[in-house]
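Anyone have tokens for AbiEi antitoxin C-terminal domain-containing protein? Sequence:
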Amino acid sequence: MITGQVGLVRKSRHPVSRIIEWVTRCDTSHVIIATSEVQCISAEPGGTRRRLISDYPHVTWSQYVLTDRQAHLIAGIAEYSIGVRYDYLACAAHALAAITRTDTPPRIQQWLANRGPTTCSALAQTAITAAGLQAPRPWLPTPKDWALFYETKGWNHTT
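Reply: yep, here.
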């Protein structure tokens, strides 16, 4: 069962995904959350929405050992976020940090993370940590942070 698992989308052909991969120097451009065996939630430009998992041909799934309660909590948080605006400002901060090869100051990351809009990585972090599980640590994670986290867990994902 993959309900509640986090998926890393790799090697997308979408132009925005290509830019994300180039800026972050990582082949992971997007993070999704499985809400069933066939559906997922995607925080993306235009807002958070439900999609078919089959929309993403190159996904590496997390391997969290989830109780039914945790899986449903994660999926529920993701479902509840449908319609939430995408956080373009956070993306701009990520891009600036990547291009200048500096870190966004923690206070700015915290301020961005506590705003209403979300990103794919931040939504996954929120849902996973609400279930009491470990997720990437930055206040404002990126798909690359998730890819590096997968590597530390040995979840067969390469950057």
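The chain has one domain: 6-153.
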